[in-house]
Amino acid sequence: MIKVLICDDAAFMRYTLRDILEKNGFEVVGEAVDAEDAVIKYQELNPDLVTMDITMPKGDGIKALREILSIDSSAMGQQAMVLESIQSGAKDFIIKPFEPKRVVESINKLTNNKGVVNVN
Q1: Domains of the chain
Q2: Could you give the CA distance from residue 82 to residue 68 in angstroms, rounded to a whole number?
Q3: Cα–Cα distance measured from residue 48 to residue 106, given in angstroms and rounded to the nearest whole number
Q4: Could you give the CA distance from residue 86 to residue 83 in angstroms, rounded to a whole number?
Q5: How much of the chain exceeds pLDDT 90, in percent?
């Protein structure tokens, strides 16, 4: 089973993603509420995949992504931030509000690799 870490400062978004993922057979191993928490929980939980909000407290998703990639190089309206995310190593990008089909497609695409799915 694919282990997923959800990183988003909005509780409703974390709940929504958890619901989508669990209904589609993924195991949510943790949730992070800010960029620092995302890096800490990544190290603690060693997930197969990370969803990452771009705009969060204590740094942003891009900063957290860079820190995660420095720890694990196999991990992976705001066009400039989307591009920067991908240039920084993100494997995919999902726009909010989430469409369950798109979330599952993105994660299925990444199940053979560790990766970071940016969520905005």
Answers
A1: 3-119 (3.40.50.2300)
A2: 17
A3: 13
A4: 5
A5: 39
